[in-house]
């Protein structure tokens, strides 16, 4: 049988040699297709290989009747509708390691171009203007570089900046003091890093939690004359806020490789002389392009030949019998993980999942992966799935344990997730009620009965008259409607909890006001 592979973005010819040499694979390269033409053409293909330009939309995927695998020759998969691919049973693979060096080197090049006005001075020279006064720069030595997102690329940038004798300070939810010390850099909260840095560079994925992470509020907290660098993804920085911050003089300059909308021919940020920019060139080196194309080609060959892939991004298909038993619990497992990590508000060091009741006798590892996925997604974004969740946890030294227990506390099935962090151990239990779906039934030692869905608030308080009324008045003042409410307590006048579901997200203003109530010890907003 011959498999047909379509390549729609420019990939390294050397990199795709493994595909060209494979006996059962026929390769077509067409990088000029319009979205409409691609939708027509995709029908006959078993594999699609792209970079960041081809938009692999739900509509395209729905037309791709034979498509088995999508290969992304690079890291970011925000141009691929992962949910649609998964729904259609199409595996997505990427090449997460191949362009790390190139992206880090490009970031350093941008920082240096920015600090010494190199693009602006070059342009002036081309326009016959010899002006030494206008292009006085700043040294990097002894300046502080703030790195937001210390993953593969952020870490490489940190090492390189140290070579420039910069002080480096980083924020990443997974960064521990020990790891920072080992790297010879400082660490702090997001606020601390942006307040202390002379240069700020972002290296997170683009996802709900990081969209406009650098916004007007963040700019207001930065030093006057700060420099901003984005070689990660357009959208992490709010471009309108950046424009205003440059015009006001708050930001001295910005270096941008990526933009909220790409490609473009005109951009108002580029009208500002303080902005230096490249058209998404971070991974565009001969070396990186060859490696990412080889990595992704090899995974495509493996998959089409029925072998396990090295870099899966979305769900694989599970054996039918396992799927039938376990599938109804997938959602519950993920939501329990997401709920608990929101509750602890810290990075997990250990995750322990206990299964009981009818789950005692079945293969539960897919549920463990779903729980860990629910936890890690909060930090790493949508590329975490039950294929890579355990791998990502291991890479971050998070211990994941799974136990079967006969103590089912009266439920026909029960999943209890326990998270240990540096300072606390917390638990949540959930069950699948026949015909009624998933329920959270215990939080720590408190009993509840709530559907893990939508906007929730978990309040710990002292058991005394009036607390519920005062809490209700605050929510009413903020026009927040309570949909359901549960209360439980350890003993009369002791510690107690309220679990609310509300009709919209609990915003910071309401949250802060609730926290000010004397009887309330903690308030957490949870959105599932
Ligand atoms: N310009 C380019 O051509 C180019 C090339 C390669 C990669 N990239 C982009 O660079 C980014 C980083 O890639 P990577 O390979 O280092 O990914 P990575 O997964 O190794 O690292 C991302 C890090 O961000 C951290 N993070 C998540 N949310 C955060 C938050 N709210 N605040 C702080 N840190 C947070 C994660 O914990 C993780 O350590 C991605 O957006 C990728 O698409 C761009
Ligand atoms: O996420 C990535 O790997 C980079 O943004 C590179 O994208 P590109 O393959 O389009 O250069």
Automatic annotation (TrEMBL):
Family the entry assigns: Belongs to the D-isomer specific 2-hydroxyacid dehydrogenase family.
GO BP terms in the entry: L-serine biosynthetic process
Primary role: Catalyzes the reversible oxidation of 3-phospho-D-glycerate to 3-phosphonooxypyruvate, the first step of the phosphorylated L-serine biosynthesis pathway. Also catalyzes the reversible oxidation of 2-hydroxyglutarate to 2-oxoglutarate.
Keyword Amino-acid biosynthesis: yes
Endoplasmic reticulum recorded as keyword: no
Organism of this sequence: Compostibacillus humi
Domain ACT: 456-528
UniProt-listed Enzyme Commission number(s): 1.1.1.95
Keywords carried by this UniProt record: Amino-acid biosynthesis, NAD, Oxidoreductase, Serine biosynthesis
Chain segments annotated as transmembrane: none
Pfam family, one: 2-Hacid_dh_C
A GO molecular function held by the record: NAD binding
Protein name: D-3-phosphoglycerate dehydrogenase
Pathway: Amino-acid biosynthesis; L-serine biosynthesis; L-serine from 3-phospho-D-glycerate: step 1/3
Reactions catalysed according to its record: (R)-2-hydroxyglutarate + NAD(+) = 2-oxoglutarate + NADH + H(+); (2R)-3-phosphoglycerate + NAD(+) = 3-phosphooxypyruvate + NADH + H(+)
EC class of the enzyme, as a word: oxidoreductase
PANTHER family: FORMATE DEHYDROGENASE 1, HYDROXYPYRUVATE REDUCTASE
InterPro entries in the record: ACT-like_dom_sf, ACT_dom, ASB_dom_sf, D-isomer_2_OHA_DH_cat_dom, D-isomer_DH_CS, D-isomer_DH_CS1, D-isomer_DH_NAD-bd, NAD(P)-bd_dom_sf
